[in-house]
Write a structure and sequence with these properties.
By secondary structure, the protein is of the alpha/beta class. It has 14 helices and 10 strands. It has helices at 44-47, 88-103, 116-126, 136-146, 159-164, 177-207, 212-226, 239-247, 252-260, 265-279, 300-304, 324-328, 333-341, 364-378; strands at residues 8-12, 28-36, 55-64, 71-78, 83-87, 108-112, 133-135, 312-318, 345-348, 357-363. The longest helix has 31 residues, at 177-207. It is globular, with a radius of gyration of 23 Å.
């Protein structure tokens, strides 16, 4: 994907936009890419949500260690006619606060792949409670589980994996090769530079021509340069940064359209409630979730059909100091066994999150079962 000036990119049109050839291939539409540093550059229908003009927007965030303690740098918004890269570094809190009504609105559907960390960063850094998301990672699992092609204990699908699935998008690695090639080249260069430096060190150490500290320093510099954690903080945005950000959202509205074709009323409810629960997954505070929008309840139309659909809930277990290892087990064996025995999503904070809590989401009975097993491990 080559950019012109100003930036442009291609997005696949949803089928309800007439975006289909006779051979059923999606039609690509060329749209502008806007870098936003002030709220006035965003569409009014986004800034001022209304039930008269509901929106479906591809959504993602980029940053440094994206979580409560990291730095949210860019927020991407994919519309049918344009893509907006909201620069949280340049626009600051004022720009992000202007986006708050839209991100919390029920009239704007935010289509995102794995909302947990993005929601956590928005909540703790800007006080934004992300609401009304369609999480494509959750949707994929629900659809595939219903069709018997996937188990609830299977790991979540990656965004690249979802793109490659022809049922949802069918975009091959070739379609995203620009960024992938650049990142691959970076990795190859890092390895080659490290190997050459190591060879240089071994060869010249024997002859005593080069101090070993110099060569070791060279290896460290090369490694840190190739894996710069502050990549998203640099300004102005480079073409590589713009391409990487755009590629993470430009297919999402189309994937939303493909997902909606596969959902019945029950799956729609499950997707809505899990999206709401996952948005608050890591947003734990002393108030609980009292200031968040209410969780969707089981629709009367589903109850009337006699479907035995169980209520879904979330739970947080506080783990005593030094006991997390009992839950994780050697090489993760214990936590993996717990996940396989319960039809619930079980997650720990990890490197970027809270270290003393376990988060559980799923059907009521399965969550209670997971709680009992986990508490048994830390007694």
């Amino acid at each position: 994907m080559e950019f012109a000036t100003p930036y442009q990119t291609y997005i696949p049109l949803p089928s309800d936009s007439g975006g289909k050839h006779q051979d059923h291939e999606a039609v690509l539409s060329l749209v502008p890419v806007h870098i936003v540093t002030h709220a006035s550059q965003l569409p009014k229908e986004f800034l001022f949500p209304s039930p008269k003009s509901p929106l479906i927007v591809g959504f993602d965030c980029e940053g440094v260690h994206l979580c409560r303690y990291g730095t949210l740098c860019i927020m991407q918004l994919a519309f049918s006619d344009a893509i907006y890269l909201v620069d949280a570094i340049q626009g600051g809190e004022e720009l992000m606060k202007a986006c708050k009504p839209a991100l919390e609105s029920s009239f704007i559907t935010k289509v995102i792949h794995d909302c947990k960390r993005d929601s956590e960063a928005l909540y703790y850094q800007f006080g934004i409670k992300l609401h009304n998301v369609l999480d494509t990672q959750i949707a994929y699992s629900l659809i595939e589980e219903q069709k018997g092609r996937r188990k609830s204990s299977d790991g979540p699908i990656s965004f690249v994996g979802l793109l490659a699935d022809p049922q949802y998008c069918g975009i091959s690695y070739f379609e995203k090769k620009d960024i992938r090639v650049l990142l691959t080249k970076a990795s190859v260069l890092m390895v080659l530079a490290s190997v050459c430096s190591l060879f240089f060190y071994l060869y010249h150490k024997k002859s005593g021509e080069v101090p070993s500290e110099l060569i070791f320093g060279l290896i460290c510099v090369v490694h840190s340069w190739m894996q710069n954690p502050k990549f998203w903080t640099y300004r102005p945005l480079s073409e590589m940064m713009v391409r990487a950000a755009v590629d993470d959202v430009r297919f999402l509205p189309y994937i939303h359209d493909k997902i909606m074709e596969k959902l019945n009323e029950q799956l729609l409810y499950q997707l809505a409630i899990r999206g709401a629960l996952y948005c608050r997954y890591f947003c734990v505070n002393d108030k609980g979730f009292a200031d968040w929008p209410p969780i969707p309840t089981i629709p009367d139309s589903i109850k009337a059909k006699g479907n035995a659909l169980e209520e879904e809930i979330s739970s947080v277990i506080n783990v005593p100091s030094g006991k997390m290892g009992c839950i994780i087990g050697k090489r993760g064996a214990t936590i993996l066994a717990i996940k396989k025995s319960c039809k619930a999503d079980i997650l720990i904070g990890g490197e970027r999150g809270i270290q003393d809590k376990v988060f559980i989401i799923g059907p009521l009975k399965e969550v209670r079962k997971a709680e009992a097993i986990i508490r048994g491990k830390i007694c």
